[in-house]
Amino acid sequence: MYLTDRPVNEGIAMPTLLTRLGTVSYTDEGSGPTILLLHAALHDHTDFDSVRAELAQGRRVLTLDWPGHGASPLPSVPLRAVQFGDLLVEFAELLDLHNLVVVGNSVGGYAACRLALERQERVSGVVLVNTGGFTPHSVFTRVMCAVMGRPVVVRAVFGAFVRAYMQPKTSTDEAIVRRVVGRARTAEGAKIAAALWKSFTDPGHDLRMRASRIAAPVLITWGAKDPTAPMRWGRELAESIEGSTLEAFGTGHVVFSSEPAAWLDTVLPFVDATHGVRQGVTRPL
Known about the structure:
Layout lengths: L2 E5 L5 E7 L2 E9 L3 E5 L10 H7 L4 E6 L15 H14 L5 E6 L1 H12 L4 E7 L9 H10 L2 H16 L4 H14 L2 H13 L18 E6 L7 H10 L4 E5 L5 H4 L1 H16 L10
Parallel strand pairs: 4-5, 4-6, 6-7, 7-8, 8-9
Antiparallel strand pairs: 1-2, 2-3, 3-5
Helix pairs in contact: 1-10, 2-3, 4-7, 5-6, 5-7
């Protein structure tokens, strides 16, 4: 394991961790029971800025930037979706994380489920946000993934695509849209996104047959206005994970940015319950 510091645009140094699949920059703030926040493809850890401070009250909160995202350097070959899960397992082992609640958005949700499946002793709870990894593929979705698996297509259409799935409601949403679209229009960003889209139909990315083996409590939070991840997928996922809870929100893909207060009202009791923290402490307004 190799630790160093990597400067980011805001002038803040983030620690970095060298894994077999690339170097990742991450944040680590607060103390107490641990929460790990995982972002979507071409997004970065700042997606969680609207909720991080409150999550960190009495808790340790970590975020990471996937390789080639945010402050993490681009690997020689962009990662496939399955490798995000591989990297997260190694990340949790290198930092020796335990009693962990993992929050995963999109491909971050896939990785969170992989960790819960393969390192059950480390995970006390999982929060999924419009997660990947459970898509019932059809001819249409396979063609879509193949088409989006071409960098030239990503650069041409991602601007409209991001705005469609985000359904921006807040200034934070708009900032996310600008960041993601800007990355997609670069050669490197287009390659990253294309590699991920192409890999979404890989057999290893389909966790539907393994969903029932997730032992940790699972809370599913779903933005019902996201056209790329219809609400029926969230309902089907809830049915496949015994004991899971599904909460729908009138948002797009990044629920915690669009409706942070409502999302926290749903998520914080779950986090504290899975961490074994007593309830009754009122959240400051």
